[in-house]
Each structure stands twice: as C-alpha cells, then as structure tokens.
C-alpha cells in the first residue's frame, strides 16, 4: 500500500490517481479496498468529514484521507462495515472458503451459494449509484435471479459429476472443487442483466468533453453492461479457480498429509491471497467513466455534439 507521501495532491471529488490507465485505477482501488479503514472510529470519521467540508471553503490540511471508502458519495451516509468495499475481502473470504469446502452436501451447496449471492447483493446495494434512485424491486429481482441461477447450476453440476461413472472418486472430488466458479460467474451475469435490463431499452446518459449530457444512448448501455458483466466474470475466476489448484498440490505434501487439521487454515490463507489479488485487478479492468467514439452512437447523439468521443458511467 502506498505511503501518504506517494499520493498525488488531493483534489476534492476526484480520485487520487489518474483513471485513464490500468495502473492508476489499480492504485485507486487499492486505496478504496484498504481494510484498515474498517477500524476508523466514528469520531475520527466525523472529523474527516468536517475537514472535507472545510476544504470547500479553504485549504485541506496535510494528512487528511479520502472518505469515499466509508461514506456513500451520493447519500453521505456511513456504509455498514461488512458491505463497504474495504470490507469485501475480509468478510467475503470466509464465504469463499465455504464455497470451496470439499465433499459438499446438497444443503451446504445451497447454503454457501445463497450466502455468497446475499453478500454480493448487499455490497452492490450499499455502493449503488444513488443519483438516479432505482426501485427496490429491481434489486430484489436481480438478487432472486442470482440466487436461483447460482444454486441451480451448482446443484446441477454436482449431480452430473456424481452420476459420471467414468470418473474415479479422486477425479470426481477434484472436479467438484471447480463447480463454484461457473455457478457464481453465471449468477453474476444474471444479476447484471436482471437489474439493468431497462438501460438497454431506455439507454444511459453520455457526456461530452465538458461534462454536459448530450443524450441517452442504448448503444452505450450495451457497452456498459458488457464491461460490467465481464468484470463480474473475471472477479471470481482467480478466487474460485486458483485455490483448488493450489490446494490440490499442497495437500499432497508431507506437511499437510501428516497434519490434516492444517488444511482448512492453509486453504483460508490461499483464498485470502487470491481474493486480495483478484478484487483490485478485476475492478480496474475498465474505467468507471468509459469513453466511446461519438460516431459509433445513435445519429441523433452524434449530431448533438462536436466532441469526437463521449463518456458514460459503467456502473458497479
């Protein structure tokens, strides 16, 4: 994590790092997911908020940190600790460990998939774009669709694997360890489509180089949903694929063979490391405000601006 002296000068309302490059976005999200912010006291948080308010009328004192990892930027309300981006890894890792437990029963498979999608839904809602309020029914619809698809795929694949007579018990157990990934990835895509399908019909706002809205584009909405869906597929890939591979190797070592009680703690550490690597990498793939050539959009939007490119908010 960067030291305060490594940061560029602070500007209110702007990220510390340039968002046009992957490295800048990566550094920005490392700051956002820093779990140390979970231990900021309520009094310290109020002091930071007051300093930021004072900054609007004067100079920001040295050493003041950005509040966006703890307070919702639109509502100015404190985000519940487990649902902050800085809490996504520490609170999500136990769920990942549960998803990857060997010899899952039907009940445990359903439980961990449900818990994972419930946690994701709460994080998505707590960090939503509140400038354009969406009906709660959309979040419920996306949540139910994600849970149903995740549970259905996970249970269905496990049943197919159990009935595959060609596999040896060892091979069957190894393959079962990879079942959570397609289940979670499919559920994530389902969640995005169900929650944001109206954007494909109504379009999303696109802004010119001066930050002025020049129209609502369905083409930009398709790009935004595609980028978001791709991010949701990339995120669980290292989290749910790397640990089974690593653990299948480590479990063959004499250390874990002679000390089977260490398997769960080691697997937890492996999942934590994979989660810590995957989260900032995945959410840094695309900028929050993505750029698209005006000529690729609807004719009426191209005629409404002289800018060669416009930007749109990709969303969470």
List keywords for this structure.
316 residues, mainly alpha, two-stranded antiparallel ribbon, 6% strand, disordered N terminus
**Biggest sheet layout:** 2 strands, antiparallel
> What is the CA-CA span between the terminal residues?
23 Å
Molecular shape: globular
Q: Which stretches are poorly predicted, pLDDT < 50 over at least 5 residues?
A: 1-13
Query: SSE string, helix = H, strand = E?
Result: HHHHHHHEEHHHHEHE
- Percent range for β-strand residues: 5-15%
Number of helices: 12
Number of strand segments: 4
Instruction: Please tell me how large the radius of gyration is.
Output: 22 Å
Describe, in plain words, how this protein is organized in 3D.
- By secondary structure, this protein is mainly alpha-helical.
- The strands form 2 sheets. A two-stranded antiparallel ribbon has the order 1-2.
Itemize the secondary structure elements and their pairings.
Layout: H1 22-32, H2 42-55, H3 88-99, H4 106-126, H5 136-163, H6 169-176, H7 180-202, E1 204-207, E2 213-217, H8 218-234, H9 236-250, H10 254-258, H11 263-283, E3 289-293, H12 299-303, E4 309-313
Antiparallel strand pairs: 1-2, 3-4
Helix pairs in contact: 3-4, 3-11, 4-5, 5-7, 7-8, 7-9, 9-11
State the gist of this model.
With 316 residues, the chain is mainly alpha-helical. The chain has helices spanning 22-32, 42-55, 88-99, 106-126, 136-163, 169-176, 180-202, 218-234, 236-250, 254-258, 263-283, 299-303; strands at 204-207, 213-217, 289-293, 309-313.
């Amino acid at each position: 994590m960067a030291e305060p002296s490594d940061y560029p000068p602070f500007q209110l309302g702007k990220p510390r790092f340039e968002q046009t490059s992957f490295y800048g976005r990566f550094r920005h999200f490392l700051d956002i997911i820093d779990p140390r912010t979970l231990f900021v006291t309520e009094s310290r948080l109020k002091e930071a908020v007051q300093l930021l308010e004072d900054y609007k009328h004067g100079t920001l004192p040295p050493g003041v940190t950005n509040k966006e990892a703890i307070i919702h930027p639109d509502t100015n309300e404190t985000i519940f600790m487990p649902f902050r981006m800085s809490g996504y890894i520490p609170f999500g890792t136990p769920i990942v460990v549960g998803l990857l437990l060997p010899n899952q029963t039907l009940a445990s498979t359903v439980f961990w998939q449900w818990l994972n999608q419930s946690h994701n839904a709460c994080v998505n809602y707590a960090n939503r774009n509140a400038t354009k309020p969406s009906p709660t029914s959309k979040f419920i619809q996306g949540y139910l669709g994600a849970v149903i698809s995740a549970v259905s795929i996970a249970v269905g694949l496990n049943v197919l694997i159990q009935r595959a007579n060609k596999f040896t018990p060892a091979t069957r157990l190894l393959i079962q360890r990879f079942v959570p990934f397609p289940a979670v990835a499919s559920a994530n895509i389902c969640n995005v489509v169900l929650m944001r399908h109206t954007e494909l019909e109504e379009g999303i706002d696109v802004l010119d180089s001066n930050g002025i809205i020049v129209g609502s584009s369905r083409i930009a909405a398709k790009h935004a949903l595609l980028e978001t869906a791709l991010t949701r597929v990339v995120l669980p890939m290292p989290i749910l694929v790397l640990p089974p591979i690593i653990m299948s190797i480590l479990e063959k070592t004499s250390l874990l063979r002679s000390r089977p009680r260490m398997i769960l703690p080691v697997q937890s550490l492996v999942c934590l490391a994979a989660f810590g690597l995957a989260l900032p990498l995945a959410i840094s793939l695309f900028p929050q405000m993505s750029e698209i050539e005006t000529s690729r959009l609807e004719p009426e939007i191209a005629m409404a601006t002289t800018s060669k490119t416009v930007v749109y908010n990709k969303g969470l």
